[in-house]
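Readers outside the structure-tokenisation community will struggle with the description of the input data as it stands. For illustration, here is how one protein appears when written out as sequence plus structure tokens:
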Amino acid sequence: MNSDSDLQIAGDILEVPHLLQPPREHPATVSEFVGLARSIAADRSQWEHLVHYDATSRWYHRLRTGPGYEVWLLSWVPGQGSGLHDHGRSSGVLTVLEGALTERTERDTRALGAGSQRVFAPGYIHEVVNDSLEPAVSLHVYYPGLTEMPMHSAQCAPAVVTA
């Protein structure tokens, strides 16, 4: 019996767009939630006019709700970050709509440019920061809807400095 998971065999599903399901009216699978986020990202008329930048704190707006899920729009001015946190019992899809964000975990630091997506399960601990000199906008889908965001004090991977 082979112990490799489907993910180890197939790789990252987000890197194989033809495997993603088109979004249904009410998504129910990870692939469908990714598809929902991609369809909203592609239709700027759904979100662009709502974006607001707040110099004192991250701005956020609940864009949509459905059976058991929520879609949030967030803006990040340079230097703003989430702090190290998880999403309680919620899974999520993070999609960068404009600009660039950095995601840090205990093991890794990832640069996320416009169009980048990250999928995470309950208990996934990370920090998201706008390390760039330009504002950023992101879309977040949570299932079930976000009811808690516990903060953590552990250290993340150090920032990667490139010349």
In short: The two ends are 47 Å apart (CA to CA). Helices lie at 6-10, 30-42.
